[in-house]
Structure formats: C-alpha cells, structure tokens
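[agent] plan:
  1. take the single chain provided in the ticket
  2. run structure prediction with default settings
  3. attach structure tokens to the ticket
  4. add a short note for the reviewer (M.T.)
[agent] executing step 1
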Amino acid sequence: MNYTGKRIEMLELCSIASGSSGNCICVGSGEEHVLIDAGISGKRIENGLNSIDLTSRDMKGILITHEHNDHIAGLGVMARRYGLPIYGTAGTIEAIRHTSCVGTIDETLFHEIRPEETFAIGDLSITPLSISHDAADPVAYRVENKERSLAVVTDLGTYDESLVGKLKGLDALLLEANHDLHMLETGIYPYQLKHRIMGDKGHLSNESSGQLLGELLHDGFGTVLLGHLSKENNYEELAYEAVRLEVTMGDNPYKAEDFPMYVARRDTASPVIRMN
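[agent] step 2 finished; step 3 output follows
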C-alpha cells in the first residue's frame, strides 16, 4: 500500500533457468505467482525460487508452452510433490500424457486452455498466444494485471503481424534469442537439425529476435530479457550485442540504450524484474 491507501499493482518476472537444456520462468504479482514451464529438475526449481525468496508451494500453477523435454522435464515431480495445477492447450496436454519420462500425473491437475482465450489465476490475467514451432499446439504467454503486462515468448521459428499485434504495449518481455546463424551453419549439428532450427517451426536467431523486439518497443517499454540461448550455437555476449545492433539499426525510432536489456542464464536465476 502507498501512503494514500491505494493498492499498488505490480508484476514481476524472473528466469529460473533459460536455454536449450532447460527452461523455467516465474511470473507473478504481489498476490499470486506461477511458473511458465518446468524443464529442469524439481530441486533446481526449488533452489531457484528460494534464491528470490519464494518456494514451490507459493506457486499457483504451471503454465506449459509445449511438450518438448526442455520445458517439461521436471513437471511430473512438481505435480506429484506439490499438487500444482497444470495449464496447457489440448494438444500439449495430450502430448504430455504420452511422454513417458514425465511419469503418472493426476488427471485432475490438468486444465485445458485455448489459444487467444484469456483466463485468470488470482489477480493475473493470462492469454496464451499461438506460435510457430514443431510441437503439438505451442503457445507463448502474455500475463497482465490492472496496471502492467509482460510476455514470455520463446520457441518460435517465425512471427507475423497477428502475433506482433497481440504483444503490443508490454512493460517487460522475455524473448528468445536462440542462435547465431553463422555458428549454426558452420557448427557440428547434422544438416536436418540445422534445417529444423532455422525453419519456420524452429527457433528465432539473434537477428530475428532483434527485429521482433524492434516492432514491440514503445515509449513506455521497460525491460527485455533474452532467453533460450543455444549452448552450442550462441553465447551471452554475442546474443546481447547482435540484438542491440538489430534494434539500433532497424526501422524503428528507438536505440538499444533506450531500455534495459539482460540475458537469462541456463544455470542461475536472473535478477527479478519488477514493474510497479
């Protein structure tokens, strides 16, 4: 509360882990917190939450973007240990049911959501947004309360004006910057895997990430956190500089120094980004 007695609306975003080897993001308000994906071990999730003064029992649910292992590896443990509700599209939930490494999950924990249809968890208003990726029914998530909005957008090979429109007006964004094209093209991956990553249902390159970010900037934009970096085909300094350059040189009125930018790490929690 501030001195007038008026409640201050707040959103916060923290990457517990983000990278091609595992992803888990915590978003929340002063009242509620949820995880977006659980692609690392339950122990790592708990340790990451503890580092920002939260616990797994503080979570009101887990929002799943899609069923690939780097997004659900710890889901079964988290569901069984804490009884956390699981939110996902029909295709994603069905795919999880057929993923043996997840183990048995109580069917009552699954909550089906539909792309582009907003639902609420406490004071959080959450909209799943369809994205282009080689999964059953993948989504990004836009999370809002009365005053602020953020989005977590990873695992998409391309984007269109429809998605850009649904991501306008954000205060903070976790955005994929998966790979450097030259590193990927000249690296050790087999041709088919390279083709998949660079395809329309693969992952955003540093350059594409910067181009998308350039379309989303506005005068009130807050902070961007670059995430889901490939361990083999990218590194933090390269992603940071490439995205900054793309924004600064792009067809938009903004420069990279106009807003804070950070890179989420695969093995440690990021600073908490708070939007008051």
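[agent] step 4 note for reviewer: The chain is about 25% helix and 25% strand.
[agent] ticket updated
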